[in-house]
Specification:
By secondary structure, this protein is mostly helical. It folds into two domains: about 140 residues, no CATH class; about 60 residues, Alpha-Beta Plaits (2-Layer Sandwich), CATH 3.30.70. Helices cover about 60% and strands about 10% of the residues. The protein is built from ten helices and four strands; from the N terminus they run ααααααααβαββαβ. A hairpin with a 4-residue loop joins strand 2 and strand 3. Helix 2 runs parallel beside helix 8, helix 4 runs parallel beside helix 6 and helix 5 packs across helix 8. The longest helix has 20 residues. The radius of gyration is 17 Å and the shape is globular. About 30% of the residues are buried.
Amino acid sequence: MKKQKWIQILFLVVFIGVMISGKLPVWMLIFGASFVAAAFFSRFYCGWVCPINTLTEAVNWYYKKKGITRKQVPAWVKSPLLRFMILAAFVIMIGLTLRLGIRVPVLPLMLVLGVVLTLFYVPELWHRYLCPYGTLLTFPGSVARKRFLVVVDNCTGCSICQRACPAEAVEISGAPKKAIISPSECLACTACAQACPTNAIIYGRGEA
């Protein structure tokens, strides 16, 4: 837990430094490496590297402590088409910034947008439906060799992990009810594993 937080803070500092120095390609290189690694180790960029997630986790912690509730994800946002339209717009803006030298502060704007939305809506809105980074990472994440898995024999179907997940990556189904984690949507943030009262969620390879 503490190790994860220190790593998140480290990458947040790196992100701020990269943005101040104007060296966007450096951060894109970090994301590119994380994209490839996601096919082997799951979406650790989201849970351990992404500065947006680091700041939104701070918001989530504060809101939980104060008992503040937020709006749910609007139904119209859940359209898969919207996710890919946002992704396309993001890729175009990054391309213009890198190739034509057009200075559009894409990444800082995303950071502000993600945090502001999380002030008013549940984190699933950003992580699951609006973040273009997340949409890209669903592809390698879906085939990740190592991922978060549910040990079926230990799972009681209590849905605590489902409520803890900030990306709607956990479903409770079957008879008897058991948790199922979607590897494509899982942020590898460890929230579900930390919340599970029976230690039924592990990080490993293959089927649990």
